[in-house]
Write a structure and sequence with these properties.
DNA-binding transcription factor activity, 23% strand, 256 residues, alpha/beta, Tscrpt_reg_HTH_DeoR_CS, 10 helices, 7-stranded parallel sheet, globular, DeoR_HTH
Length: 256
């Protein structure tokens, strides 16, 4: 009986830890300990277990959530105000008459909401972006073909990549799961990486949209290096190493 109660309590803690990380970004062991009213040692054991299950990544003194496996609907509710601030700055870069590639993900969706009434062309594999803009007659909307990932509201695969090879865009607004200290853009969802790379190849200018939780964020698959970026729009301080790597590659960092 005691063991069963212990397991239930541990499972509840695990849920609360993941909720905290997904809503607030990286968290320290000491902060989680205070929030949940347990010892730091207990939190460390919980983090080890959750990392073994692939649900988070431990970093020095704490952890960050693995967002790659979260359905779009869950991620869409996280850090909305921050994403909107990033989206507003990004939208201001676009001029009427230009063509814009919008990546998958929730920040690209927030950007799409800023584009209503603009006389531009939007190209996307993001089904939520398509749904947001489909009734806006001012926008020329191009939906890429491909295999539908229903929970993630995106299109992927060789058809998507082939479509992109036939297209050109003035801008790409790229999402990410994390940015490494060397400036490498990472993703947790391997199947999305070839599409992101094809988008980079199809665009004149690449703008990375990355809120504070993406430094360092997560991701096991490299999408591109800092040399492939032109601008990073973020609402959080990038660490000195990351900023240096971006600046050395000629990337402009815009902070909201």
């Amino acid at each position: 009986m005691t063991s069963t109660v212990h397991d239930v309590l541990a499972e509840r803690r695990h849920q609360l830890i993941l909720r905290s990380l997904r809503s607030g970004g990286p968290a320290a062991v000491t902060d989680l300990s205070e929030q949940l009213g347990v010892s730091p040692a207990t939190i460390r054991r919980d983090l080890v277990k959750l990392e073994e299950d692939g649900l988070l990544t431990r970093v020095h003194g704490g952890a960050v959530a693995e967002e790659g496996d979260q359905p779009f609907a869950e991620v869409a509710e996280v850090r909305v105000a921050e994403k909107d601030a990033i989206a507003e700055r990004a939208a201001a870069m676009i001029e009427d008459g230009q063509s814009v590639l919008l990546d998958i993900g929730t920040t690209a969706y927030r950007l799409a909401r800023q584009l209503h009434g603009r006389r531009i062309t939007v190209i996307t594999s993001n089904l939520v972006v398509y749904e947001e803009l489909v009734d806006d007659e001012d926008i020329e909307l191009v939906l890429l073909g491909g295999m539908v990932r229903r929970e993630y509201r995106s299109l992927v695969g060789f058809l998507t990549e082939d479509n992109l090879r036939q297209l050109h865009a003035d801008w790409l607004f790229l999402g990410t799961s994390g940015v490494r200290p060397g400036g490498q853009v990472m993703d947790t969802t391997v199947v999305e990486v070839p599409v992101k790379r094809a988008m980079i190849a199809a665009a004149d200018k690449v703008v990375l949209l990355a809120d504070r939780a993406k430094f360092p964020g997560t991701g096991m698959a490299k999408v591109c290096g800092p040399e492939d970026l032109d601008v990073v729009v973020t609402n959080g301080p990038t660490d000195a190493g990351t900023r240096s790597a971006l600046e050395e590659a000629g990337v402009r960092v815009v902070q909201t």
